[in-house]
Hints:
- InterPro entries: ICL/PEPM, Pyrv/PenolPyrv_kinase-like_dom, Pyrv_kinase-like_dom_sf.
- One of its GO terms (molecular function) is catalytic activity.
- This is Phosphoenolpyruvate mutase.
- Pfam families: PEP_mutase.
- Belongs to the isocitrate lyase/PEP mutase superfamily. PEP mutase family.
- The longest helix has 20 residues, at 258-277.
- By secondary structure, the chain is an alpha/beta fold.
- 44% of the residues lie in helices and 12% in strands.
- The protein has 2 domains: 10-257, TIM Barrel (Alpha-Beta Barrel); 264-309, no CATH class.
- The termini are far apart.
- The radius of gyration is 21 Å and the shape is globular.
- Strands 1-2-3-4-5-6-7-8 form an 8-stranded parallel β-barrel, surrounded by 9 helices.
- Helix 2 links the parallel strand 1 and strand 2 (47-50).
- It is built from 12 helices and 8 strands.
Amino acid sequence: MGAQIAPKSPASHLRLLLAQRDGPPILLGGAHDALSAKLTQEAGFDGIWASGFGISAVQGVPDANILSMTETIDAMAGMAAAVPEVPMLADVDGGFGNAVNVIRTVQRCERAGLAGVCIEDNIFPKRCSFYDSVQRALVPIDEHVGKIRAAVATRKDPDFVVVARTEALIVGAGIEEALRRARAYRDAGADALLVHSKRPDFGELREFAKRWSASGQDKEPDGQTQHCPLIAVPTTYGMTSAEELADAGFRVIIFANQALRAAVRAMRQVLADLKREVRPAAVEGCIATLPEIYKLVGVPELVANEAEFLPTTPKT
């Protein structure tokens, strides 16, 4: 965890974290529903990544804009309500359409209690960055600049964070194109830049961060530093530590889908064991106890509220 702070809202909490230029990297854990959000909070992450990949997966569909804006943000609203003390960054793909759709997306996300949005420059409908069955293209730079400008202009809370994400490296457009897009998105008002890669090593992103810093792209025209932190998602280059990423210039690290993948493997194993053994005791040693679940979902608070507010005399 980073420095302990007492912000006024989830958005101000996330903005304060992003403003910290020194110290440990900011760690966001990926969650896909309210229960996984609670577990991410319990683990002590600085914030939560509301994963579009994960939300799609728990509905049994690919990460390809199959779920609507309403379905996606309703799921995120439930997650944010479950952990109101933790800032949650919403993965809203490309904003569910053009800049006009982005306006409504930001309005809905703010009302849902989310701390910010991450908007990517994939064409609509998007495909998960790691799917290899479809050749993807990016929207033109000016179109995505319009989306970022619309998001910034729409937010009511000035602390609400707008992250611009470029998939230039994902589609093989190269580092120079990634730099060009990152520069344009920063100039459009993005508060942070997520630069995605599906390489199995960190070399490509290390070179991006080096060139970004060396080219002075984090400077205003008057020479003053404009703080626009870089974000990495080390899904495919998993041997790279958060400390190594931070040393290279990435301030925020997102562990996007590991909790979901762990849950799938654990459930598959337990269900196979139950089917084979046909008795619950066969899996008791590798599953959470009922009291653990009760605590996670707030049963102790329920019992306390019943004792405090429900009538104690029996009905006649």
